[in-house]
Backbone:
């Protein structure tokens, strides 16, 4: 089933959902309307009970960055304040929503992921890319600094030296090199990308949902917790996971030497 939102659509497939950015005429450049549609689409996915989510782009690119023409068309007299408001009211709520989303996310990067497109792509727990895809931090080319949380994410994923290179030079980073750098998880042939991303998400959707949701929170929080605090969190979330039917099923399946059938409970 396909459900339409502003410049976004959601397709549901059994226990998983696919959300596609859908403004291919501008290579899915992120407008205010698209942000609204994205947030509405995420609410829909959570409400429909999907147990995993694929995020991708419709057409020839994943996301070409911010919709700059829209920002200029607003005719704002105070450009700095306009930029700050767009971040505060648009991108930041979207990125926090993705960070806190209750089910695993697979991002399928087709074609260009530029600027904020990189930040959205990296919100995936697993990031897959088509062979012709590329990542580009083009902020310096227009006299801006990286945003969308990328100066926090990139050094943690690829190291400070490579993060600086990617941001300051603004060169394209091809998918194969992004894989070698550890920025992404998988590279697939372009024609197989969406199918393979759905297959990865299906594996997650068939997994122990409570434990996977807790893993998302643990990994995000580990970035700014000390070791002792992380041990406490692991204990807390392990007790929650240990109270689920999926834990009982997992142990029984292990003892019976069969594949577990998790129900997300």
Residues:
């Amino acid at each position: 089933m396909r459900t339409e939102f502003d410049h976004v659509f959601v397709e549901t497939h059994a226990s998983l959902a696919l959300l596609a950015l859908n403004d291919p005429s501008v290579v899915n450049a992120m407008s205010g309307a698209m942000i609204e549609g994205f947030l509405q689409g995420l609410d829909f996915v959570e409400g429909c009970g999907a147990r995993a989510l694929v995020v991708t782009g419709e057409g020839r690119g994943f996301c070409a960055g911010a919709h700059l023409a829209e920002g200029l068309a607003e005719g704002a007299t105070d450009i700095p304040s306009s930029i700050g408001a767009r971040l505060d009211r648009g991108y930041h709520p979207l990125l926090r929503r993705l960070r806190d989303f209750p089910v695993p996310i697979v991002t399928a990067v087709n074609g260009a992921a530029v600027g904020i497109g990189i930040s959205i792509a990296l919100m995936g727990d697993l990031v897959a890319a088509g062979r012709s895809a590329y990542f580009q931090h083009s902020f310096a080319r227009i006299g801006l600094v990286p945003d969308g949380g990328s100066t926090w994410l990139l050094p943690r994923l690829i190291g400070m030296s490579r993060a600086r290179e990617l941001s300051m030079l603004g060169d394209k980073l091809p998918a194969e090199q992004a894989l070698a750098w550890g920025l992404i998880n998988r590279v697939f042939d372009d024609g197989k990308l969406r199918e393979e991303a759905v297959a990865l998400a299906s594996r997650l959707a068939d997994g122990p949902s409570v434990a996977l949701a807790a893993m998302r929170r643990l990994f995000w929080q580990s970035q700014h917790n000390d070791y002792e605090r992380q041990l406490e969190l692991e204990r807390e979330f392990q007790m929650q996971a240990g109270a689920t039917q999926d834990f009982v099923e997992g142990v029984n399946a292990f003892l019976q030497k069969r594949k577990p059938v998790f129900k997300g409970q």
User: Anything to note?
Assistant: Residues 16 and 180 are 29 Å apart (CA to CA). Residues 209-255 form a domain with the Lyase 2-enoyl-coa Hydratase; Chain  A, domain 2 fold (CATH 1.10.12). The first helix runs from residue 32 to 47. The two ends are 25 Å apart (CA to CA).
